Structures
1.
Amino acid sequence: MWLRCTSRRLLTPFNRALKHGRLNASSWSGKVAAVMPEAAGFQGVTDRATLQEFSHAHSDSFWAAMANHRLTWTSAYDTVQDCDLRRGKVKWFVGGKLNVSVNCLDRHVLTCPDRVALIWERDEPGAEVKVTYRELLEMTCRLGNLLRRRGVKKGDCVTIYISDALAERIRDANSSTVITVNQGVRGGKMIDLKKTVDAAVDTCPNVRQVFVAMRTETPVVMKDRDVAMEEEMAHEEAVCEPAAMDSEDVLFMLYTSGSTGKPKGLVHTQAGYLLYASLTHKYVFDYHDGDVFGCVADIGWITGHSYCVYGPLANGATTVLFESTPIYPDPGRYWETVQRLQINQFYGAPTAIRLLLKYGDQWVHKYDRSSLKTLGSVGEPINTEAWEWYHKVVGDGRCPIVDTWWQTETGGICIAPRPSDPDAEIVPGMAMRPFFGIKPVLVDNEGEELTSKSASGALCIAQPWPGMARTIHNNHQRFIETYCQPFPGYFFTGDGASRTEEGYYQITGRLDDVINVSGHRIGTAEIEDNHCSAVAESAVIGYTHDIKGQGVYAFVVLKKEADITEPELRQQLKDSVSKSIAKYASPDYIQIAQRLPKTRSGKIMRRVLRNVVERDLEGLGDLSTLDDPTAVQEIIQGHQATT
Ligand code: ATP
Ligand code: MG
C-alpha cells in the first residue's frame, strides 16, 4: 500500500522539501555518483538511441541514472542491485527510501494540480468522472488517514476485491482488511460483489474489517465488521504525510491469469517496479506530456496495474479507467470513448479486437479517431488478420501498432516494436525488440543458448531488471523452481519465441502448449494464425495420437456473417495451415464452437480444452479465473458431437 500518515498541516514537511528540490538533490548522494561515474553523465538524457546503447553497455549505471532522474527519493539507495538469478535473489536500489504515492501524485500536484489524473470511464457511456491530480491526492490522503485510524499499519496487506477466489487470496496474503464496493457494474449488469465478499470473509477469521464503497445506490446489509468507506473518508483530513518506504518493501501482490495452472501470487516491490512501469509507459507508447492514455484492461490484471495506474501516474499522465465492455451498449463503445475522451494511446487485448472484428467496420467508422497516435496490444499473440484490422480500420493505417510482450512476473513490457526509435520498422504480429536493459535469449531443450541469429527456442531473460517480481508470496521455493532453475542463471518465461535474421523476436506461444507432431514441435500461435476468412478466432491443442505422438485438434469460432459449409471450412483450414506451415501441422479434428473458454483477462485456457479432448474432466484444476463457466459445458457437448 502507499501508506501515508496523518498531519494537519497543509504543506507537509515532505512536500515542502519536495517543492524546494531538496529530496531529489539529497537522494543522488555522492556515494552513488562516485561508484558509477557513467551514470552521472546520463542524468536527464532522453535520446532513445543513446539510452538503448547505454543500457546495454552499462546496465547498472543505466538503471542508476534512470532511478535518479525519474523517481523522487526520500533518501538515497547505496547499492544499485543485489541480484543472483541462480538463487532467485532480486533486490534493486537497496537501502533507498521513497513513497510511491508521492511519485505518482504529490510531485505532479506541485507542478500541475489541475491536470486530470484519472478519467473514470463508467459503464454508462457519457457519464465519465474526471479527477484532477489535486483531487486524487486528497482522496488518497483521506483513505490513507482512514486506514491508519482503523489500525492498518505499514507492512499490512489490504485486499482489494476483484475475483471469485477471494477467500483463498485473503488467506494466502494473511490480509486483515478488505476493500470492496456494494455492487460492480459491467455491460449494464449489476454484480453483487459485497455478497461474494461476505461469503468469503465469513471463512477468513483474520479479517477485522471490510471497507464498502458505494458504486451503485443499491443498499447492502452492513455487518459489524463493515465500514462505510466514503462516509468515513469524508471525516478524514485531506492531508496525510507520506511514509518513507524501503525500495524493497512490498508494493502489491497480484495473481497471474491462471492460463496454464493455479495462479501464482507474485510480489512486486516499490522502487524498481515503479521505475520500470514509468519508463516503459513513456518509451513503448511514445507518451508525451499532456496525452490522454487509454488502457482498457481490467485494473485487477497486471496490465491495469502497470499501465492504468502506476506507469501513467508516475509520468503525470491523464489515464483512463475503463469500467465497461467492448460491446456495451454496442460494438462501437471503444471508439465512441476514444472520440469523447480524445484518447491518444489506446491499449487493449487481441481477444477484444477479434471480437469487434466480427461485428464489422461500420462500428469503427461511426466515430472520429483522429486523436489516436499509438495502438497497443497485450496478453496473447495477435493474429495477422486482427493486427491488420486494428491497423487499417481502427488506426486508419496511420497509427503504429505496438504488440507488447510481457507477464505478471516481468512487471512491465519487455519486448515491443519501438522502444528506442519512434520511427523504426514494424513487422505485423511481432513484438520485435527488447526494451532498454532487457537481454532476451533463446535456449534449446538441453539448456544451451541458441547463438545463431535466426533461431527458435525457450524465451529467457539473461540478466535481472528492476521491474521483475521478487518472489511468489509464501512460496519462494516455487519462484526458484519455476523461473530460476529450468535454465540456471536466466529468468525463464515459460513462453517460446523465434528470432529473425534481423534480431526481431516473435512469441510462438506457451511452452506448455507446444504440440509435438511426429517429432515436429509447433507453437500454438503459428497454427492459430491461419488465413480463413470465415474464422473469428481459433485455439489448437495437441492430443495423444497413436502414430504421430500428438495430433492437432482445432477449435474455431466463426464470424457472425460467415457463410460456409462445414466441409468447406475444414478444407480451407487444412489448406491454409499446410501452406503457411506444413501438411503435418494441419488439424485432424476441427470443432466449431460458439466461444472459447477464457480467463477474465481474455486469454484462451488451452489446458481446459486439452482436458476435454483427453476426456479428463476430473483434472480440470483451478478454474477460479475462468470468465464464463458455461463456455466449458458447450465445449464438452461440442466435443462429443465432433469425435
Ligand atoms: P499463468 O501464468 O497463471 O498461466 P498467464 O501467463 O496467462 O497465467 P499473465 O501474466 O497475465 O498470466 O500473462 C502473461 C502471458 O501472456 C505471457 O507469458 C504470454 O504467454 C502471454 N502474452 C502476453 N503478451 C503477449 C504478446 N504480446 N504476445 C504473445 N503472448 C503474450
Ligand atoms: Mg504465466
Note: The radius of gyration is 25 Å.
2.
Amino acid sequence: MSTQQSSGAVGNIIVDGQKLWDDILETAKFGGTAKGGIKRLTLTQEDRQVRDWFTKACEAVGCSVSYDSLGNQFARRPGTDDALAPITMGSHLDTQPTGGKFDGIIGVLGGLAVLRTLHETKRETRHPIELINWTNEEGSRFAPAMLCSGVFAGVFTEQEALDKKDREGIRFEDALNGIGYRGVAPCGDHPVAAYFELHIEQGPILEAEHQTIGIVTGVQGMRWYEVTLRGQDAHAGSTPMRMRADALVTAARMIDAVQKIALENGPDAVGTVGLIENTPNSRNVVPGEVFFTVDFRDPDDGVVQKMEETFYRIANDLAEKAGLTLELARVWDSPAVHFDVECIASVRRSAETLGYPARAIVSGAGHDAAYMARITPTSMIFVPCAGGLSHNEAESAESDDVTAGANVLLRAVLETDMR
Ligand code: HGY
Ligand code: MN
Ligand code: MN
Ligand code: MN
C-alpha cells in the first residue's frame, strides 16, 4: 500500500471495485430470495443480520460504529481536526418485499469502499468521515418512506416514528427493540458538514443514453394517501345488484382514476396504487371494506397538488354515488428538493476528472438525501441499472458502473474535505 498521503490534491485514488462487488453479493444473502432478489424489510431479523455485518465490516476499516434511538447506524472515521462536523455518506440496507441487490445497498457499501480505501491508503482527512445506514428508508413496512432520515432532519418527531404501526399492527418501537438496535443517543443530535448518497437511478435514462454517472440535481415531489371505503358485506348469490354496497367495485373505479389523473397531468406525473386490502376477501361475499394506498409524484409540486385535488373530487363523488363511506387522508408530503450547487459541482468535477460519461438528472425515487438536503449541503450520484428496473427481484447493475459511482463518491468527499 502507498505511504500515508497528505490530504493536499485529491490525487488518483480509487476504490477496490472487486471487494465492493464481493460485499454486494455477500450481503445479498441476508434475506436473499429464490428469484435472486432480497426481502429484507426494516427491523426484521434479516435487517438485524445485515446491520451486524455492517458494524463488523466498518470496524475492520478503522471506524467506530454507533446507532441512535431509531437504529440509524453511524460508522465514523476520525479526522485530523476531529472537532469538525463530519462529511457524511449514506443510504439504506432495508428493501422492498420483492427488492433487488442494489437499491440503497450500493450507497452503503459504496461508502464502505470509500472508508476502506482511505484506511488502506492511510489517507488523512481534516473532517471526520461518517457512513450512515438509515432505518426504514423504503416505507414499505412503516409509512412513510425515509422516516428516520426525516426524524434526523427534524421533519418528524422521534415519537411519531416509534408509534408507527405496520399493517399487522406491530409498533415500530417494538420491532426496533426486537432486533436490539435501539440506541440511547437521540436521533439528530449531531451536526453534519455535507451529505452524499450513491444510488442506482431506478429509471431508464442513464442506460438509454450510455451514461455512467447521473449528477443528481434534486428529487421530485411526492405525496402518499390512504383510502378506506366502507359498504356492506353481503351474500354474492342472493343479494340483488341494486341492493349492494360493494366497496371493491368503487375502489376499482378510483384506482382507474389514479392512472387517468397521472396520464392527464403528464409527461412527468406518475400515480400508483401499490397496496390494497379487501375485506373479507372471500369469493362469495360482496366486499364490505377496502383499504388502498395512492402515491402521486411530479417534479413540480403544483402538478402534485392538482392531481390531489382532482383525485379528492372524483373519490368523494364515486363514494357518494355508491352510498359508501369514504375515509381519505394524505399521510405523507415530501415536496420537490433541489440539491446544493457546490455538492452538485463536486460530483460533476469528480465524474469529469475520472472520465466517466455523465449527465444531470432529477430523481424520480425518494431518497434519504431528500431530507438531508434540509439540514446540510447535499447531492447524489446515480449509476445505471438494467432496463431502469428497480423494486423488482430482477434489479441489476454492472460492477464497473457501481465502482465508478464509488470512485465519484470518494472524490466528491475528498474534494469537499479540502474546500
Ligand atoms: O418510494 C421511494 O421512492 C423510495 O424507494 N423509498
Ligand atoms: Mn432506495
Ligand atoms: Mn427503494
Ligand atoms: Mn434512499
Note: The first helix runs from residue 17 to 27.
